[in-house]
């Protein structure tokens, strides 16, 4: 199948600190890839390089055939193809749930208020929050906020969705609803890259698991292979600590 | 009794002081209008990526915040001579400029601080949706930062209003200047100064109440 994301020899420095030490990865259309690893392993940085929230020091990232790291690429336009969901939701607190979702379609894609509404309402329904359209983020639970954030990203009709530890800031009882929405999305064929500590989700929904440590991909493969029969000692040690 | 009150030194000073109050209000309003514009420019300038722009505004803010407004007013009025800039600034114009430049420096810090205080994640969320830097600033950062600016801005407005009293030394006919003139002529020093202070309070107290209401309404 078509390569939606292609990463070649990606290096990232923060000052003198090399956080990513040469990542090569290819993610196919409709594939769900879960990235796991200890904190400080560079997995979030890797994800953030995929929509250039972090500047790439060296190497190339190509999304849907367009090279992100090329200076001539219109980064704002390319970002509309890559939805991102953050650990801390980052909803706009001064805007209602509906306005959170309709802002970018109106300002970036030039949709009218009515058109943007027609995009947003089915998405809110999809994440199970139709009744919250006029609510403000502060009145929502963490799980609801994250589902709004997913709807907000989907409103730009992205080709890829990036999730940066989407359930890490949630109370345990709220995790399920968010994972269910992500699972539905995966089943609809969305290409997804998910940095997560939810090993159950990685096992059940992931097509492939990437284990990162010390700025490189240490091991990757089918979830069964990684979880049941890890080859790399680092993977073995990491999994033994968390499972 | 009412007749006695009307005849009292307190009330008799009012028509004279009223002229000064009008000047005080006019200078405050104009000074703050320009001061807010300067402050917004300087505050955003200090957040600029360009070192030069940042440097210029930082020098401005530090010079103004590090020197007394009295020295600044004297400098503008007496220090900058007519031959230097080709126009003769009258006391009123000098007053407006002094208040604008002085308030501008403090407002710059208010603007910068408020924008800076908005969580980085807000910017990232905007950019990740494809909004440009400018759009993110306009639709996401600025509205949130603006709310946070209101309490310190209100504070600065009150300070600038009171700072105008310093302009009496360059013969701006403000409330304090008029008060001095009045008690020099009538020798009713105590009564006159009580009225001067009351007139300041007539503005600052309602201003404080309005600001508190606004804060509550905006839920800051």
TrEMBL record, chain B:
Compartments (UniProt record): Cell membrane
Keywords: Amino-acid transport, Cell membrane, Membrane, Transmembrane, Transmembrane helix, Transport
Main location: membrane
GO biological process: amino acid transport
Highest taxon above the source species: Bacteria
Entries under InterPro entries matching the protein: AA_ABC_transptr_permease_3TM (IPR010065), ArtM/GltK/GlnP/TcyL/YhdX-like (IPR043429), MetI-like (IPR000515), MetI-like_sf (IPR035906)
GO cellular component: ATP-binding cassette (ABC) transporter complex
Entry GO MF terms: transmembrane transporter activity
Location of the ABC transmembrane type-1 domain: 21-211
Keyword presence, Signal: no
Membrane topology: Multi-pass membrane protein
NCBIfam families: HEQRo_perm_3TM
Protein name, entry field: Glutamine transport system permease protein
Species this protein is from: Salirhabdus euzebyi
